[in-house]
Design a protein that fits this description.
Elements (H helix, E strand, L loop, with lengths): L22 H12 L3 H4 L3 H9 L14 H10 L5
Amino acid sequence: MQTELCPKVAKCPLFNGTLLKRAGSEESYKNLYCKSGTKKWLECKRLQTAEKTGKCPDWVLPNSSLSIDEIVKKMKEKGELA
């Protein structure tokens, strides 16, 4: 049985190993979100942010405690979003 992957894995720095320095944490996120089917992808704050704004900053993790509106506000404050 092939694992169904998030549609954003090709460009996701978390999935591709360039976001986190701890490999164990990275693998945990991949297993909990990236490789766990549509229901879990839809819970991923990185995916939600990218869908809303067209991009996702590196400081957003899949399980961020911030709401999407709070993330967008913070992105604007940091000059990451117009």
